[in-house]
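Standup notes
- DV: blocked on the single-chain target, sequence here:
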Amino acid sequence: MAMVTASVGSEPRAGGRTPSVWRKFLDAVAEPQPRNAEQEIIEYLQRHRYDFPPEVWIELERRRLGP
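- DV (later): unblocked, structure below
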């Protein structure tokens, strides 16, 4: 899965001007939060819970709750 990000950037623009507070705020809000692979797997399994046979869920729960 490839992540596509678009960034306006907050580096000084041509002419030596620094970005405004508003531009910094928008950049911070628009910046995607880093996602960790484990969280993505958990979300996928929760969305597709009923696509797997019960034996798979039993094994996943056993491994997740085990030592």
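- Follow-up: Helices lie at 21-30, 37-47, 54-65.
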